[in-house]
Amino acid sequence: MPDDQHVDERDVVVYLGLLMSQARDLILASRHPLRPSQFRVISMVPYDAGVSMTDLAERVGMTKQGVGQFVSGLVESGHLAIEEDPDDRRRRVVTRTQRGNEVTAELAWMLEGLEETWAKQVGERRYAQFRRTLEEIALR
User: Fold this and answer.
1) 16, 27, 51, 97: least surrounded by Cβ within 10 Å?
2) Which backbone phi and psi does 10 adopt, to 5 degrees?
3) Is 95 helix (H, G, I), strand (E, B) or coil?
4) Is this model's pTM higher than 0.85 or not?
């Protein structure tokens, strides 16, 4: 980068980080304090069905070993359960417990409220476009 150019301290990463801080603070302030990364893992397990460790790792964007560490901790805390697949005993299936379902529903509701706050700040139409744009970029 040429010497005469400076990096704007308020680049998009800083702005996204500020938004993530608001979401993280909301999650940590709940009556079920989880790290946002833990919530992400729980929320990627289907509500009414199990998912293999391999599929969960793909959904979350982590290695199978990495997601396995998260799952182990969430099993210990009572949010998730691991069961053997009756059709393939080598395959482990991750499911949400009742506690995991309750936490996921509560935190999703709280985050929805945060999004409503953001939408009120900039207007419903502008926020909807912002969200669609984020989804398009994130899901490519």
Assistant:
1) 16
2) -105, 55
3) strand
4) no
Q: Tell which wins on pLDDT, 4 or 132.
A: 132
Q: Which of 135, 66, 63, 55 minimizes the C-alpha distance to 95?
A: 55
Give CA–CA dist 24/53, Å, rounded: 25
**Any idea which residue has 């299936």 for tokens?**
93
Sign, Cα dihedral of 51, 54, 55, 60: positive
Tens of pLDDT, residues 83-111: 887 788 788 899 999 999 999 999 889 99
Shortest CA distance to 51 belongs to which of 82, 73, 89, 72?
82
Q: Which of 137, 34, 55, 52 is nearest to 92 (CA)?
A: 52
The pLDDT tens digits of the residues spanning 14-63 come to: 888 899 899 888 888 877 778 888 988 999 999 888 899 999 999 999 99
Q: Is 24 exposed, middle or buried (0-12, 13-18, 19+ CB in 10 A)?
A: middle
Q: What tokens were used for 68?
A: 């396995």
